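re: that chain from earlier
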Amino acid sequence: MNLPSFFAELKRRNVYKVAIAYAVIAWLLMQIATQVFPFLEIPNWAIRLVIMLLALGFPIALIIAWAFELTPEGLRRTEAADHEPAKPPRNRAWIYVVIIAAALSLGLFFVGRYTASNRTMTSSLPQESIAVLPFDNQNRDLDTDYLSDGIPESIINSLSQLSQLKVMARSTVFHYKGKEVDPRKVGHDLGVRAVLMGRLIQQDDNLTIRTELVNVSDGTELWGQQYNRKLADVFVVQEEIAKEISEKLRLKLTGAERQQLAKRPTENLKAFQYYMQGRSVSQRNTLDDLLAATRYYERAIDEDRNYALAYAGLADAYSTLGVLGYIAPIEGRWKAEEAARKALALDENLAEAHAALGLADAHFAPYNFSQGDRELRRAIELSPSLALTHLFLGISLGRQGRMEEALEECLKARELDPLSSIIARNVASPYYLKRDYSRALELLHQANELGPTFTTTWEIGVYIQNKLFNETLAELEKAKGERKNDPILIYDTGMVYAAQGKQAEAFQVIKELEEISGANLDQAVWIAKIYATLNDKQLALTWLERGLATGAIGSFYKDDPVWDPIRSDPRFTDLLRRMGIPQ
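^ sequence. v structure.
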């Protein structure tokens, strides 16, 4: 083949002109598709279809240019046109078309780039994020609250499993329950791009649900739907709403994520009601509330023996009861592990069950941090927006002395659940353990605005290190008025007395804790802390030994300043080794 002759023939047959014109016009069409289609809410597949058709059309256009020529008489084969008398050269209109198309293409390209960068600079919100608010119970009947609370919580649980979506946690969005809210303000306050609101009416066996998905940036409705169904169809409605949200937010779901969205934890309405009641009362983390939660979860399981989520809730409640010394820590551990393993046997991909099992390993000595952290990270993999799992991992890392990693996980939990008093309180923990007492105190004051005070066993140390003895005793007396015979409040009082050097009062509290502990020595670690604060090294070490021997050590941080009087003692180092705590 003579290449110079071939290229000359391409030029003679106007193939070059067609190629240039096609490329410019195709680029213009692609810019229109990519910049304009999203604004008109045309699905992404239409953009891909335009690009694919334009790519396929390019070689076809070149073949036509080679084989045919446009003449005043119409489209003629090139060979036939060659035998016709020569015509005066055609005008250069095609050049102007190409120039105009190129200018429009460049204009659209740079407008798109500018607006995209401008959006990036003016907004730090994630691309896909949502707050699902409690539905308005228009029956005004507490007996149907399990529906107006339970449906949005189930939607939260489903959406939390999607890796591309940031979902605000239950305890944050439920701060808006029963309030008249502006979805745009809620969205801006929580840092999300969309807010789901709903209204619910139950009449006998009939259920009417009206939902509205609001775009926070401009207040427009992204999607709305009214469902008129039978009460028994509530689980189908939950599934449909979650799917609609994922579609309207244009999330690209994996096959596994689609399966998770379609999964129904239970088909039993009574079991669902008991589970939701358990979830509701467990939010405060007090003795009475946690015991009530276990009863509700057990009733849910009685109604549906295959309700994996109820077993996971039961595991979480027992673990918390044990670590706070409300029941024997060893009892809390084995009951939590038993319930979590039952949940996993029913559903091996249930994030809440992996989290509960991991928490048991990270909450009770002897600890198994490698196994516990593995379970917690698996839970995060399955449900990235599950805020409490990030918190549990932060607690585990804090017990191991990995403070920066612990703080990072606690902050992730707070980002997902900014109005949770439990999470807000635990964000202060790494600062306390790093001896930044003023910052820890500031964070505790913020947490106290969100929920009950003195619900952890380490936070009393923050007040002691900041020398707030009298103020703290006054706050403890106030809390005792609401929480009768709460062992944590009794222990906290003893710690303040010990820090003040009031030995008689501190010994009286120790005696009271010994009576509460009984043979199980449930409060062994707390008694050891009071003795350490009194600088009685021997008794502090003795009570730690007794606690470890009976499985009574739950919440324990090796870096807690309370252990400074015995930190250099070889017996303390040996205790840490036997607890499974890294040195």
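The domain at 456-583 is CATH 1.25.40 (Serine Threonine Protein Phosphatase 5, Tetratricopeptide repeat).
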